[in-house]
Structures are given as C-alpha cells and as structure tokens.
C-alpha cells in the first residue's frame, strides 16, 4: 500500500539543544483513596484473600476493596471481635484461605463467615510480620520478640524464645523473611539468619565486606540466586550479592529523587517474572534494568492523569493476576500491571507550565529511529533508546528557530529535509547541513497557517492550510505554487486544507476544513468533491475532515467532526458511522489501519478500535493507560516497527497494535452480597461461597450483587444475568445489582456472567439456586389439604343433607299424615258437632210436621234420610264433587225451609264448568249452618245466602244480621275448615266482610283423573 509517509529524521544539531531531559517508564496507574472510602490515605500493608478481594491496611483500620467500593473495618471500643487499635504492617492469606492481619501490636485472623476478627498472642507480641507458610497449616511469623510459629488448625502459637534452650538467633527482632529452597532466611539488625526447615538447624549467614556491620532491613533472593539487600544504616543504598555471600556491589541510583532531594529505599521485592522492584520515599517506584545494570525510576508526573499518584511509597504487593499494588503515603493505594501496559505516553515540554506544550500535533520518524514531535509550544526530537528529548523553541533572548512555536504539520522528504508547518509559515531543516530555513513568499509559501505537509510518490510536496487553501511544489522545482495555478484543482482554491493522503491507487485525498472531501486522480486529470448538504445527506457524514487513511481492502476512511465515513473508491459509495450507529463519540480524528485490517480511531471519547468485521468497537480510555480521552485532529504516524503514534491533547500516545489481542480472560466472578428489602441478608456461608439460598416467606423483595474482579478497568465490565423461570430473557448491563421484587414462591436458578467485551458473551457463567418460601396458608400443600378437606367436608355435608332430606321427607310425610289425621279428626269432630244439633232440630221439625202437616212429614223425612246417608258416606272420602255437595246442600236447605220458611232465602249460581271440581264434604252444610247460627232470621228481614262460583272459588256470602249471643259457638268452625283445606291445596280459604256481607271463599279442588 502506497501512502504519504511522514518519514522520521535524526537531526545532528549545529546549534546547542535548548532543553534535555529523560522520559520515564510509562505505566497506567489506577488509585483508590479516602474519597472511595479508605479509612486513611496511609496504606502500610496490602494483601489478597481467597476470593480475590484486595485488603488494604492503614493506620486507622483494615479495608476490603473489590475494584468498585471499599468495605472498612475499624476498632470498636468494647468489641473484642473488632480489630485492635494499631497500625497494620502485613496481610497474608494462607493455602487454606485463612486471612491473617499483622499489626504493630498483635496478630489477628478474619473470620469470613462471622465477619469478625480473632486475636492471637494478645499482649505478648508486637511489630508482627511478615508471614510465611512453611508447610500446610504451619505459619512462621516475624515479630519484635523473634520468630513465631503458628499451627493454624489448633491455634497454638509458639515463640522460639520461650524454649528451654532458647535459640538466641531467633530471639530478637526479625525484620524480613523469605523461603528459598526449603530454607528460611531471616534478617536481623546484626545480619542474616538461616533455618533449615528439615533439620531445624539455625545458623548465622556470613556476609560480604560491604554488608558487614550493616543493619539489614529488607532482602530478596532472586530465582538465579542473586541476593538484593537494603540496610537501615544505609537507607539509600541497595546491595547485591549471591547465595555464597562473597562478592558484593553497591547501587547508588536511588540516593536522590528527580528534584534533587535526598531519597530513601523503603522496600525491595521481586515480581512473578523475577524482576526486582524498589519502593522509595521520594523517587516513587524503581525497576532494575539488567541490560543497563541500573534502576529506572517511575515517579509522579502531574501532567499525566494515569501516572503514579505519589512518590512516597510505603509497601508493595503483587496479586494473583500480576497487578502490582503500592501503598502511597497520604494518598491511598495505586496499582498497575507491568506486562499489560499497551500504551506509553510521550510528553515533551512537560517542564513548562504551559498547556500548549502538552498539546501534541503531528509526528514523523527519522531513519535512526528518533521521533520528531510537533506540539503547541515547539518542535521536539525524542530518542527512544535514551528516553531524552531535544527541543526547538523560540525563547525570549534566544535565536529564533521557527516561524512559530505552534507547530502543526511535519514531513520528511526523500532528500532528507524536514518540512515544518507552523501557525505562521513553513520551516525546512536540512539533515546533512543542520541548517534551518525560513521559507517565505519568495519561495511560493507565504505567511499562512499550515496544518499538513505531505509528499506523493512523484515527489511533489503538498501543503494544506489557510490562505489559498493548498500549495504544491513539484519535484525538481524550487518554488511552490498556489493551488489556483493547478489545471484541475484550481477550481477548489481557497478551501482550507486539513489533511492530505495518497492511497494505493495513486489517488490524492484532501480533507477540507468545513468543506468536505476532495479526491484527485493525477492519471486521469480529474477531481471529485463531496460536501454534505441538507439536500444530499447520503454522502460524507461531516464536512470537517481531519484525517484520511486506507485499509487492506482498499476502503478509504475519513474522520470528521460528525463521525466516520468509509468510502469504496470503485463505486464511491459511503458507509457512515456515528453515535446512532455505535460510535461512542461523533468527533473522530486520527485514523490508521493495522496489519490485521483493524481500524484505530482517535476520538473525543478515547481511542476506538474497529475489528476486521467492522461489527465490534472497543473503546480505550484513561483507565486503560491513555493520557487523556481527547485526541488531536491531526494525522497519526505509523513507525517502521509497526507501532502507532497518535497525538492527543496531553502528549503523544505510542503503542504497538500487534500487542493487543482481544482478551476474553475469565474474570473472577463473585456474588458479593445478598440483600432483602435493601438490608443485608444473613446466611450461614459467606455470600461468595453460596450455591443455594432460601428466602423465608415474605422476604421476596431481594437484590443480588455481582462483582467481577477486573482491576484492569472495572468500568468496562459488563454483566449479564437471568433468573429462570422468572426472567424471560437475559439482562445485559454495567450495573452489578440485580433487583427482584414480589417474586412468587418457588424454585429458581439465578445465572450470571461477566465480560469486558459486550459483543462476546462466550464466557463461563455462575449459578445460584434460589428458593422463595411461601406462607403455610399460601402453599400448594396447604391448599391441597384444604381442598381435600373442603371436598370431604362438602361430601360430609352432602351426605348429611341427603340424610337430613330423607329424615325431613319422613318427618314431612309423618307431619302430613298427622296433619291429615288431625284434619280428619277435626272434620269428624265438626260433623259430629253438627250431627246432634242438626238431628235435634230436624226431629223437632219432623214432630211438628207430623202433628200439623202430616202430608209434608213424609217428604221431610225422605230429605232427612238422604242427608244422613250422604253424611255417613262422606267420612270415607276426603273430597266430593261440587255437584254432589250442592245436591246435598239442597236437601239441607229444604229441611231448613221447613223450619224458617221465607225467612231463609238461598240462591245458587254455579257455573257448569266447575261441576266436576271437588270440595270437602259437608262444607256447604257447615257454612249454611254457621250462617243460620250467627244471624237472625224473620220474614221481614230474611237471611239471604248466595252460593256462586268465581275464579276457581266457591263463594258463600250472607247478609250480616248478627245475633246478640250464640250459645253453641266455639269460634273454631272456620279455623278447622281452613286447616283442612291447607292440607288439600295451596290456595287459601278466605273470609272477609264487605258492604254488609260476610263472605267465605272456598278453594275449588281440580277434578281427579280416573
């Protein structure tokens, strides 16, 4: 792929360099402070527990850190299970996962399940630590009282000085310890002591001459047998010897800090890669470089947000994932990974209190590997081998070196000349002669703002900026020309040039400042211009084009202030990316393609990486090691070794894209807390060890907190969770808390996982079995039993009802029989009451007829006999036909006429339709007799009785002529008759008085089928 290459130049200065300093080692540090909850900024001990949490001991307490938040433990007066009020000196986790905290005044163990501390050797030991596990369950511990041995299973703490024959070598203060090849090395003020763990033999190590008389403080034995030592008597010196303790070398590299102040070495340690590190009190952190045989310092740079935050380091610790943690006095704890540091920051001019000196612009590489760096405050040359800078800056009282200190575009042409575009003109520096030239109007390059300079494959130099927009200098010519003179591009004169790029086809691409993108084909002598307008929004995504590059597929990429455009040069079709299409930011700047065809893009929200499929975007920010999230809008530089150099608002970002591979490392994922109604939920086990959990009835509002121990950049961790069968789908989020409300009783499985790439969830998942209890009165078994009970009860009630109904029917039948019997008895009593009275009256009448009217006596006797024959037959029948009852009544009336003559007037009006209806026998006789008994009769005021049918009733009514006294009345006749009819029909027997008439309504009974 051919492109405009900003070649680099090594300049041998004719004149003296104005500024020289070294670039320190660059690592990306992250920090936790009291602002995140630490009990104190003075961290004196660091350790890691069995789950992966980092424990930080301070002067005021113990802190547990998960990358997000801090859990603190402090001394509580009167609580023996809290920590002792003392400085923490050492933290150690043994092979059984038990956590030991060493204090200035004692030793404690943290009980994870009870969340309490237990003290050992109270009041007997002090200045405790370090701790080494020499065998499973056996700890050897350093203290002021000498060496301690703790059997963790029994809790037996043994002090060697208490032995009958106390070993004097183990009975005084021990400062440091290390286990090497089954031998325990210990430091004392008087030297080193060696204990053979197999033989338990203790000897004093003979020291070389340079260490004799030194008060040994710290030491480390490397894998190759090299021994490094620091001494209290010589706090700024580091000694190196070997296990034979013969030769010795003294290192004074750390005697003074960068600012010239006296320094002190506080500790030395080796990491997992067998590298030696030293912590200091003024110079920060130091790394021993075996190639130079020197210590290189890593100290605080106030202009870099991810540099080490302080230079006074108390302690160091390397965790299971290789991160090195530092306790920094007055600040807190800081950590970095020495082998995962993809990015390095070059910060020329950082000695100046000038933001412009840190604003990086463009860069080129010289053949010797030195880098030329353009900034807002001058031009700098950086030697990557020595880490030193040389500056070209206009300074007051010094010779003018540049048109302007605001340097923008750089280009090294094929003749070895460095072209320098500044805010007011172009400089040219000749490598061979060391001569700096100031090009002006006479050279065809008038005073203007030059942002970019590039050379095409024909040797033509192109200049982009203000004024005419572009100038060009053809190969072999000495005077540049305005774009106005170009036969093709003259049409585009005056368009502010921001970037220039030549692709593999020889096409020249001009990024314009506010006017879009221009493509020039030198072979065909044609040009095309794209500018986004309201009428044409399917083309370039933005008109401020900052940078142009080409990927391995020949696709042209243009970065703009509105997003990123990918252009197919064969069809000139545009594919645009912005926030709506997945970009974290619309403003994009520098853009380069690596050999894997991945696209790296600087933006206002960090460095972006498009994978080769263009489906995934990875974002890097300050937490990944960038000096800032905001990139400059000038072209990046690709170095010969494949490294990329991007310009940012805070220095240059140097990195090798080949070193980056998508990491899908399994993040340690824990269930860090369980809460119910936003309160901690008590469990027998630590939440991290739970495999299942039971929530009692009513505690169905709960939250589960997940923690992935991603100390590299916890803010880029994504979580996914799903509680089956409650959740229908997975939830993907950066939030660690999974909240559930009003969860029904039942059994569930909570599945959860974590990743740093939200597009890749092919990672292991964790599960937690959850059982939500139900109140007994809501449980299925209760409702089942209740249902069965209700069914049984219903069956019992149904059976009882059947039995009751049967009994009721029997009782009803008995009652009916009794009622019938009662009615019949009443009827018989009634008829028997009537018979004697009626018979007496009838016989009296018959006697009178025989004496006075004999001819009528026979007729009277015949009617009387018919009546009694009817009455004698009636008791065998409950009911008789109405026609029969009327015939009977006729005989009765005939007899009564014999007695009363015209004083009794009876009238019948019977509808033939009711002739076959039925009636209780002798009803009419009783009613007629009743009317005669209760009323007066004489010819002047006759008793009129009407018997008619009406609406299913037989009406018997008489005019009311009441007697003053009725001797034989017991007032029960009608009531007994009413009771008898209630037995036979639902229609009631009615009585009433209306307009001087007494009316009795007898319900007629329907005819019976024969």
Textual characterization of the structure:
The structure is a single chain. With 1010 residues, the protein is mainly beta. The chain is built from five helices and 72 strands. It is 13% helix and 37% strand. The strands form 18 sheets. A five-stranded mixed beta sheet has the order 59-65-64-61-62, with no helix packed on it. Strands 67-69-70-72-71 form a five-stranded mixed beta sheet, covered by helices on one side. The protein has a four-stranded antiparallel beta sheet with strand order 1-28-27-26, with no helix packed on it. A hairpin with a 2-residue loop joins β7 and β8.
Helix/strand layout:
Layout: E1 30-32, E2 43-48, E3 54-58, E4 62-65, E5 70-73, E6 88-93, E7 99-103, E8 106-111, E9 116-120, E10 131-135, E11 138-143, E12 146-151, E13 156-159, E14 176-180, E15 183-188, E16 191-196, E17 201-205, E18 216-221, E19 226-231, E20 238-242, E21 249-251, E22 265-270, E23 276-280, E24 285-289, E25 294-298, E26 313-318, E27 324-328, E28 332-336, E29 343-346, E30 360-365, E31 371-375, E32 378-383, E33 388-392, E34 407-412, E35 417-422, E36 426-430, E37 436-439, E38 450-455, E39 461-465, E40 470-473, E41 481-482, E42 497-502, E43 508-512, E44 517-521, E45 526-530, E46 545-550, E47 556-560, E48 563-568, E49 573-577, E50 588-593, E51 599-603, E52 606-610, E53 617-620, E54 637-638, E55 644-648, E56 651-655, E57 669-676, E58 679-680, E59 692-695, E60 702-708, E61 718-724, E62 731-733, E63 737-740, E64 746-755, E65 766-772, H1 780-852, H2 854-873, E66 880-881, H3 882-900, E67 904-909, E68 918-919, H4 923-934, E69 943-950, E70 953-959, H5 973-984, E71 990-994, E72 997-1003
Parallel strand pairs: 59-65, 67-69
Antiparallel strand pairs: 1-28, 2-3, 3-4, 4-5, 6-7, 7-8, 8-9, 10-11, 11-12, 12-13, 14-15, 15-16, 16-17, 18-19, 19-20, 20-21, 22-23, 23-24, 24-25, 26-27, 27-28, 29-56, 30-31, 31-32, 32-33, 34-35, 35-36, 36-37, 38-39, 39-40, 40-41, 42-43, 43-44, 44-45, 46-47, 47-48, 48-49, 50-51, 51-52, 52-53, ...
